[in-house]
């Protein structure tokens, strides 16, 4: 962004209302605007944010008119997502003779026309073909200049809850989550607005569904919600730093942002809203992971309760660090003591039993956390003591996906377990952040992460983001088997491919069906810290 | 009891029950002065078709047929049943007549190759996992080449740093043979430790001529040699686990072809 743009922004509502004096010299408001924001111009019909997408930025409307969909959901095709095309049994059988010997063949006529257009800056966008018809058919609300949207999804790392599109030519300020975080930190009004939005829209509902708040009456819930603080730790693009640390052999507790440290005073209950965190204790000359927390889990309840019951300040008995990006709620001890503890049963102490376990029983958990496999909901887990390395799984995958397998039967191993390089359909899918056309998305059924081949522009953002290298870019071929090239540059056209759990074929993942020795499973990597002995708890597909 | 165990119990129970039925039926047919070979022959042919169809199912992986693991259990139980029915059908272990003997040889070879393959698949994976190395079979040549390049780099570095060519000569004269390609194939297959023993012998032979500086290089070199030995084990085990089907499947096709011919001949000339 140029200096003139920054100067112009400082005269506009919202940004102009901020007090630049409150920003520290190392992170001035002008610097944030220059480095973490950009001005985006959208044409009529351009989709700005899509319902269901993960995004790392919020938008401030500067000029023009944009519309947000209300309770109505725009059809998935309209948003650039294909509805999963399920083959019937005859089409499935027909693959026996329709599968080509040349892999990755596509009917390139599908790509002509479509709902993608490229702006003057070269960025591809999906747009709505007929805005008046959309306005007639679906309920929408108009957003006015000065209104902010998308901040809850950006800060909370949760999917967008609505689609926003430009009704006419519109100019917006896109604020990256880092900028959003810094502005929120230093500008009280901005923070109050964002926090109020969250309190208004989501916090009470979230608390009412979360033990130990679920039994509270409306008044107590209101008071707890008012006292709750919002905090974020780690970086949104954790995959980048994780990859670097991993390759340098430095991934571990020491390089993870600390949320709470063992020995510190327990000043509140920490509720994980998004992301993952590691719970560890000092052991020998290192840190021993005793469990990990994900969305909905909480930290510090035992110590808080003991402090309240016995009086005095009890120290935390374990350390909590962010595994990547963590968005959490901190409910202060005072609110707990006033409204929650008198109304709940004593919490069960879990730390003692976890600490009492032999270190060897923690090894699988340490490995899974270190490799971030805890993120996987459908990881491909291979029992190497059963696997005869026959590659029937690979051949089955290739037969189901036009001749090219969507995974590599290789990957990190621990004991007899191997996690193969196949899409794990992560709980926190960093691959979905930044896709310019929303081609990579979660399917409606089951939440499988899939790629719409029609709207994938081959930019490789998803492949570069995946911390596990489970997305492959492939050259595509036309129906005659010739490589498809960009007419302008003569470079081959690439498409992102990955495991889609055989979404289009009946019968579930072909790899699982094809394994003659039951060695391959698709599992949710939920290592229950309380379970006896090592071995992933396999939520097999 | 896991579902796999239940399936095995059910399948083997069915196999035993079917054989018992065929045995009783054959005995009763014989008592009625009938020829039990007609019924047992058709049962045997049906079993051969069922066993061969497992290979077809593998090639139709995109079609949601029953899971391959179920098929394999059926294949194993059906294969053992087929041997028993074969003996019931022929009434002897070694039949008369050239055609029948060729058929019997192929059938026995097929059964033995099946048993050998099954045994390998039960034993080798665990040994491979315990080796602590995991390598894709097709990448083994590249892996060996990489190990060879790293070993040669260590030898060259040792020569450059110490000015001594002892390790270089040892590599040229002896160890280059080992690093050239996978070695001790059959020794690995037989679970012999000959590869490790050979390396130990070479280490003892050369180490007395190395000084401390050379020895530090040699330790790194030795680590690579041990790793190569484990990759060799992968090569041996994975080769056999992939190649036994090159014997089993053609034999199955031959047995099926002879069965069809036998069926035609019997129906045309004997019935």
Question: How would you describe this structure in keywords?
Answer:
heterodimer, A: 541 residues, alpha+beta, Jelly Rolls, 3 domains, six-stranded antiparallel sheet, four-stranded antiparallel sheet, 16 helices, globular, disordered C terminus, B: 271 residues, mainly alpha, 2 domains, 9 helices
Short description:
By secondary structure, chain A is of the alpha+beta class. Chain A has helices at residues 3-9, 29-36, 89-98, 131-137, 151-156, 177-186, 188-208, 218-227, 238-247, 301-310, 333-340, 351-356, 363-370, 392-400, 461-465, 510-514; strands at 37-42, 47-49, 57-63, 66-69, 116-118, 124-126, 140-143, 148-149, 164-166, 170-176, 229-233, 258-260, 268-283, 286-293, 298-299, 319-332, 379-383, 413-414, 417-419, 440-442, 449-451, 472-475, 494-497, 520-523.
Assembly state of the chains shown: heterodimer
Q: How does the overall form of chain A come out from the CA principal axes?
A: globular
The CATH architecture category of the largest domain in chain A equals Sandwich
Q: In what range is the share of β-strand residues of chain B?
A: under 5%
Main beta-sheet annotation of chain B: none
Residue share in helices of chain B? over 70%
Task: Please tell me the overall pLDDT of chain A.
Answer: 86
CATH homologous superfamily caption of the largest domain in chain A: Jelly Rolls
Integer tally of domains of chain B: 2
- Helix proportion of chain A: 25-40%
**Taking all residues together, what is the mean pLDDT of chain B?**
95
